[in-house]
Design a protein that fits this description.
By secondary structure, the protein is α+β, with helices and mostly antiparallel strands. It has one domain: Aminopeptidase. It is 42% helix and 22% strand. It is built from eight helices and seven strands, in the order βααββααβαβαββαα. The chain has a seven-stranded mixed sheet with strand order 1-2-3-4-5-7-6, with helices on both faces. Strand 4, helix 5 and strand 5 form a beta-alpha-beta unit. Helix 5 crosses helix 7. The longest helix has 18 residues.
């Protein structure tokens, strides 16, 4: 298997997933805000209430440069945007203030994370601030692949960046899924008594090859096999 340009990939990203490098506006912004509010309210492991203003401020702060990305997934009439992912390509030394603001921590509290990334000799990585899907749209592999593949292609093919980092809570399904996809936990902290874990994929190119070359059924079989192996350990 090899990595292709997006338009040449055997498995292309469906049209309902869109990659951009600027914040949404107008109706698209309102639909994204609604999806954000829904995702983080409905999940018991987050149970967060977000105001429209806070989400818009966060989006405009984190997605406002060509080094940033935003991927959205179309839903239906009731939920026009059903999933989203956004983030930016950054040097590890620039992560502290960005993560600290999101987690309401002091940048120095994240020095352990930055030091570990530097020990791995990572000079740049693509950091995902958000990756979420409204619950009733989570069926199968396609929503995850569709939200992931566009920015992995962009990070590697256009920027030669092949490491990826994001954070979540171990209670979220994305944590286990991330482990199955080659991510590893590298740093733990707490926010309001909630466990937060940062997981890193030092080289996501094998994952990108799988996304571009295997259909959803083949990927599901691989994930099931990895899951069984992890349970036996």
């Amino acid at each position: 298997m090899r990595i292709f340009k997006p338009e040449m990939a055997p498995i292309k990203v469906p049209n309902r997933f869109e990659l951009t490098h600027q914040p949404s506006v107008g109706l698209a912004l309102e639909s994204l805000i609604r999806a954000y509010q829904t995702v983080f309210k409905e999940a018991s492991y987050w149970a967060e209430i977000w105001s429209r203003e806070a989400i818009q401020e966060k989006l405009e702060r984190e997605v406002d440069r060509q080094s940033s990305f935003l991927v959205t997934m179309l839903g239906d009439k009731e939920m026009p945007i059903a999933g989203f992912a956004w983030g930016e390509i950054l040097a590890p030394t620039n992560l502290g203030p960005r993560i600290a603001k999101a987690l309401q921590k002091k940048p120095a509290e994240l020095d352990g994370l930055i030091d570990k990334l530097l020990r791995f000799r990572i000079t740049k990585l693509v950091y995902a601030d958000e990756f979420a899907i409204v619950a009733r749209f989570r069926s199968g592999i396609e929503p995850v692949r569709g939200l992931l593949q566009p920015w992995l292609e962009w990070a590697w093919l256009e920027n030669q960046v092949f490491s990826c980092l994001f954070w979540t809570t171990p209670a979220s399904p994305i944590y286990k899924l991330g482990l199955y996809m080659g991510f590893e936990p590298v740093f733990w902290t707490k926010v309001e008594e909630k466990d937060i874990v940062f997981i890193l994929n030092r080289d996501f190119r094998p994952l990108l090859k799988i996304c571009q070359n295997m259909n959803s059924r083949q990927i599901a079989r691989i994930l099931m096999a990895v899951s069984r192996r992890r349970r036996r350990k």
